[in-house]
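Q: What would this chain look like folded?
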Amino acid sequence: EGCPHPVAQHAIARELGLASWPRLKAHILALDRARDAIRHGDPAPDTDRDTLHIRCGSDIRDGLRQAGFAGDFLEVSDPLCHGPVPADGDLIAIRAAFIVAQYGAVLPLDVDAVIDKLTAAERALRTAAGQDRRVVLWMEHDAYDQLILARCLAVFAEHGAPARLELIQRDRFPGRARFIGLGQLAPEALRMLWTERVPLDARHLAVGHRVWAAL
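A: My prediction, written as structure tokens:
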């Protein structure tokens, strides 16, 4: 009583981006559990191991903290899908000059500051390589994210993978008719996605290295 007709259930689930009513119910329950964990101050999801979260922007930095995550955060956000990516020359200086020329009219950008930011991100990536810690990459399906993902994997292929390398990747989220990024998601959704991370191994590093070389 009070439950929609099975045909209506199926239509509602599909409209929200899930294949069936049971999957919709499971999704809602998972969000509720994550919300309750945050509200009750449960232990951090990543407390079992020293963790570095890597994201191609700062959009989920605050959300991860609000969701209860305790690990470090690294932003790697050079928009490699735009502009030159030469194999020769000072790549960071070339990228910085392009970024300022392309976006300086709408953002307060300075070449030296951009060089410092890109250098710091690259240095942090190389520092994470080979370390005895867990590194989790939070990415989406678009070219911006995927080329930054390739860069991260190429660095780890060249300098050594961290002890555990994992990926959380989404191209949609139930209830979001127009999914444009993880930054749209509430803290409980980020906490729920933690259970979806998948391990990356030498095969993935090799693919990332090939993609970076081709770029």
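The chain has a mean pLDDT of 90.
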